[in-house]
Amino acid sequence: MQTFLVDQVFTPFSYPEHTYVARGSYENTLRSALSAAGSVVSLTGPSKCGKTVLCTRLLRGRACLVAGGSINEAGDVWRTAAEVLGIPGATEESEEAEISGGVPVVRGRSNWSERRLYAVNPLEAVSTRLNEEGRVLVLDDFHYVSHDVQRKLAQQLKGVSERGARVVVLSVPQRGEDAVRANPDLRGRVQSVVIDFWAEQDLKQVANLGWRKLCLRLDPELEDALAKESLGSPQIMQALCLELCRHLGIEQAPTGKNHSVPNGWLGAVRKRALSLFNCETAYTALSQGPLRRGRERTMFLTHRGESVDIYQLVLFAAAQDPPHTLLDYADLTARLKRLVKGKPATGSQVVSALEQMSRIVSESMECDQVLVWASEVRQLSFPDPHFLFYVRERYNIGA
């Protein structure tokens, strides 16, 4: 029997070869959207919810992946894609010649060669190769691309689509329409596929598949606890499973050994995983709120005996059990009331803080939307579950 190392089984930052969990409805929807030649698909979903892994699994070697973070100009996409597809940047023809009296003279065999380079248009070459080989261009993290470059790319994608090539654009929900906004001519051409956070039942399958691969026998209640802490993110689930194994001293597949889990295991495992998802900068900016002007902020005494201002209190409340990446205003205010000893925060204080925090995110963290306050529907959301995971650990909730 093959022996696996734990970091081969649980892989937070690479394709989960041994712990892939099929999400059939999403796979079928994406497959259908890509069935026609010239398809342009906008695949949106929360940060780290498995969009790239879904494409990799579905396309099985046919994906031509270009990372949004590497795109500084539109040409970067086509040059990178050309490299992935093995398209040379130039074609060559040569004539062998020998120097005679200072003049090159073509001979049958020589020690001198004249090269003539003929430039290849990467966009046209990539479009042709994608269409001929049935490959799919996958633009990952499109929201990382500047708006000016997005506009240029959106114009080019229309031409690529007209040549019959297929394209998938991956982005987060709040930026899912960037390609269409950048070029309204794409409207009607772009099909939208939206995926959501993972259900706890699906997350538990990650752990179950891994335990079996490692021949481990662990209490099923561990899977429940890990899935709850993962906040709908398969990446967090992979990290927690990996760190649990390390916490128990397991480095490779044992031979059916039982392992007891010591008290306090969850807090220890969560702390180990925290180093993988450091959100200190965002946490500091939001917990401090905007620059203080004039009078001192109102302070609130929590049931723990801590004195906090409204910005810290909102984060503290959002981190409480049960953890949710989407909170209605009524749920948030109920949590706030349970946290505070004495007079609770007023509605105007809460709304003002949420508006200020959302403004900090939109102005200072354009590509890192860790928190969104949607005033029109009165909902607070955490599009990046890693941030909420980090806040829960900072406040030591649920450990």
The CATH homology group name of the largest domain:
P-loop containing nucleotide triphosphate hydrolases
The CATH topology of the largest domain is what?
A: Rossmann fold
In round numbers, the mean pLDDT is 86
Which percent band covers the strand fraction? 15-25%
N-to-C order of helices and strands: HHEHEHEEEHEHEHEHHHHHEEHEHEHEEH
Give the name of the CATH architecture of the largest domain. 3-Layer(aba) Sandwich
Radius of gyration: 26 Å
**Spatial strand arrangement across the major sheet:** 2-6-7-1-8
Global structural class: alpha/beta
Instruction: Please give the domain count.
Output: 3
Largest sheet: 5 strands, parallel
Number of strands: 14
Query: Percentage of helical residues?
Result: 40-55%
- Contiguous runs where pLDDT drops below 50 for at least 5 residues: 90-118
CATH class of the largest domain: Alpha Beta
What characteristic shape results from the CA principal axes? globular
What does this entry look like structurally?
The protein is globular and about 70 Å long. The protein has 399 residues and is an alpha/beta fold. Strands 2-6-7-1-8 form a five-stranded parallel sheet, sandwiched between helices. About 7% of the residues have low confidence. The longest helix is centred in the C-terminal third of the chain and has 18 residues. It is 43% helix and 16% strand. The two termini are 37 Å apart. It has 16 helices and 14 strands. The chain has three domains: 139 residues, Rossmann fold (3-Layer(aba) Sandwich), CATH 3.40.50; 77 residues, Helicase, Ruva Protein, domain 3; 115 residues, no CATH class. Helix 4 crosses helix 5 and helix 8 packs across helix 9.
